[in-house]
Amino acid sequence: MADLFAQFAGWLHDVFVKQLDFWVILGFVAQLMFTMRFVVQWLASEKAKASVIPVAFWLFSLGGGFLLLVYSIARQDPVFIAGQGLGLLIYIRNLMLIRKSTKRARSD
Fold it and tell me: How far apart are CA 108 and CA 104, in angstroms?
């Protein structure tokens, strides 16, 4: 059992410490931003007692998605590049629709 624990500890060290560099730190920052969108959405929904998606959700999506795209390009990960690239288009489009709706509401 001690040997299994030592192997696991060695694996954790190799994955989380040995590989630590600027890109891994950027990846973690990006993932944190991306995760924050769910926290913002959850808190807004709890406050409204209904499911809502606030603008901050899309802003965190855009920021986290952009940083994850940069990270995936640096790591040359085609799956992440394709996924984050498409996601960014969706986030930008949603922000454009929100802006258009807000302008229309102000002019009424």
Answer: 6
